[in-house]
Write the structure tokens for this entry.
Amino acid sequence: MQVNENFEPVIVAFCCNWCSYAGADLSGTNRLNYPANVKIIRVPCSCRVNPMFILRAFQKGADGVIICGCHPGDCHYTSGNYFTRRRITLLYSMLDFLGIERNRTRLEWVSAAEGAKFADVMNQFTEDVRKLGKNRRLEDLRCRKQ
Amino acid sequence: MQRIGVFVCHCGTNIAATVDVKAVAEALSHEQGVVISQDYQYMCSESGQDLIKNAVKEHKLTGVVVCSCSPRMHENTFRKAAASAGLNPYLVEIANIREQCSWIHKDIASATDKAIILGKAAVAKVNLNTPLTAGESPVVKRALVIGGGIAGIQTALDIAEAGFDVDIVEKEPTIGGKMAQIDKTFPTLDCAACILTPKMVEAAQNEHITIHSFSEVSAVKGFVGNFTVTIKKKARFVDETKCTGCGLCTEKCPMKKVPNEFNMGLDNRTAVYIPFAQAVPKVATIDPNYCLMLKNGKCGVCSKVCSVGAIDYKQTDKFIEQKYGAIVVATGFNPIKLDKYDEFAYSYCPDVVTSLELERLMNAAGPNGGTLLRPSDKTHPHTIVFVQCVGSRCDDSKGKQYCSKICCMYTAKHAMLIREKYPDTEVYVFYIDVRTPGKNFDEFYRRAVEQYNVHYIKGMVGKVSPKADGKIDVQASDLLSNEQLHINADMVVLATAIEPDKSARPLATMLTTQMDTNDFFTEAHPKLRPVESATAGIFLSGACQGPKDIPETVAQASAAAAKAIGLLCKNSITCNPCVAHSNELMCNGCSACEKVCPYGAITYQDKEFRMPDRTTAIRRVASVNPAVCQGCGACTVACPSGAMDLNGFSNSQIMAEVDAICK
Ligand SMILES: Cc1cc2nc3c(=O)[nH]c(=O)nc-3n(C[C@H](O)[C@H](O)[C@H](O)COP(=O)(O)OP(=O)(O)OC[C@H]3O[C@@H](n4cnc5c(N)ncnc54)[C@H](O)[C@@H]3O)c2cc1C
Ligand code: SF4
Ligand code: SF4
Ligand code: FES
């Protein structure tokens, strides 16, 4: 695939309030750079992320979606991220079926102390999505203009 | 019709230097529902908050978006401002354009674009916000302190002083922690036991304090104000209520070869033991790994000699359940294991000891009654080498990256005490840097060098080799003179790095509190909330939060107590209104939500519904207890019929944010 130098991917990041959102804040406090492509949506826990939200993002033009939660065992609600892990695994087979490359969706554990990791993950993910190029937009056939 | 006000903060230049705030305000003014959009220097200042209050009144706002720093900073500030002007506080949303925009981007154009999109997402969300009212939940007026070192003791005493009941759970047979093992304390050189043991006794005698020694926390349920904790009282095979601590059993016990952990294994104790003379509670404990009666049913001496019949070989672990309003963690620290440091010969040379072992060797209640003797041949050492930073400030994976903070000072203390008591002893200290930032600390260290002639050498010790004649060859480099040195030593003392107690990690999981990468508990805010954990109702005390000396530990312990008392004083606390609720018309009673709820907040009710044919039918539907729900949202995703939703983070709100970002 041709890599388009000017392609700026749209990336949605869901971050749980207790670890990853705080990790993102920490990377800000430490002035660690990551691309402006990444836009964060705060959710109470990674388990609040309904796979529907991810599909919705792809439908609306996102090129990549990343879900960040506390490390296994550290979820503020004890077990939320275990649900997330299972749900995302299931979602992958759905995405395969839809023909959306797996690398466009990622699940990462970032703790409140890992500001540097947050920035690294976002840099890497943006690069990976950039390489994949523009996403084929998921369309809702019912809404297609005739 | 929505009437939304947007306020874009400059945060001085923190935001305004990289984000064109005027452009952001202008762009957002065209968004759906926005009636006023302005920028201001400092939104969190009083005049900034007034701006919100006035706008709420003047424009009859139905929603507010503040584009500013992280909601973790000022969400509450802006909610309160809105509430004081009569707007429901949950109609306020924050777009984080500082931590997650201006601070990470350099290019003004792309940072401004991003800020606009984040603002649009917040506006899209606030369009769908609904007013929420927080419920109240009662506060149980009892506190739990986990760990009975000086930190836990001080916290418990302070809470009890305020008139609240407090329980200490200590995993060892006695409270006291590491301070009970220390000989004298820097920077004043007063004896640790003399200042600690009165406090231990005070805790034992205080009518508000209950000490559960030889106990552990095995489960924690609930939330701030209302925790339910299961405490495991480990079998000590002695009835605590009967034992008088006379110690007769420990004298008569035939099993005398048990390594004494209180003396760091430097001498032996009996299978039935009391850790030290001033132990609190002063109750014997039988070690089942060594007790002949418990191992092979032959002995029973202690039971025969005990005049009060306290010995109970059949005792089992007991579990008690107790409710608490606040929990304070005070699990302290331990020196690291030195198995990765073979170059110091610690594992095979008895005369290479850790600093904590040295404390016992010098302690009047220690194995040698306070006379400093080499562990190997019980002779007086004439040359002693101290190695600092063993396992601290390491850039490899062998040790810890952090500075253990207390070692410079206690090494100066040890050196000084040895020179004071045994002036014929030469003392060398190898250091990387000497760090003495505390009050009277540098003076203390300088006294060691100037008054006591301790030889401080900036350099690293490369190898410690025991020799056939019983001496120890210490090979080191002197960084200032750039020389290789060999010191013919009698003893080597390793200032060993400290790390959190191993039980801290599983405890953090039970308490759902955060830890840093080194397993120290993380405070809610490193500067502004240093004694609270991010989990409401759980406070941090002492070295479990980071390396600390005693004065710092005690200061934090009292601060944690003050925070806990502040909570216990309240009769009830406002709950988080961002809880789940199910739409009864859509719920099919499938129980999917109940299975994922970690708090058991979901129950089922049979309700009557009118059916299309005008009959009524009874259906089973989910109902969420808002006082128990913590708002994680797990159930909302599990619900196959879309009946379950979360206040404040509803499906439609999050979708609206997604849409705004992807547009
Ligand atoms: C060699 C050495 C010399 C020192 N000298 C000095 C000095 O001269 N002056 C000075 O100011 N400081 C000195 N210190 C530091 C001092 O020891 C600490 O500041 C202090 O002990 C910290 O108290 P703490 O209560 O936080 O932790 P600790 O003393 O470690 O107490 C923690 C307690 O919690 C218990 N616990 C742990 N986990 C659990 C659990 N899961 N459940 C129940 N209970 C648990 C432990 O058994 C222990 O009793 C020295 C330290 C060392 C190692
Ligand atoms: S959001 Fe749902 S799963 Fe989470 S605590 Fe509340 S009821 Fe339980
Ligand atoms: S998962 Fe949904 S449908 Fe099933 S019981 Fe819970 S709220 Fe009702
Ligand atoms: S709170 Fe972070 S994953 Fe659950």
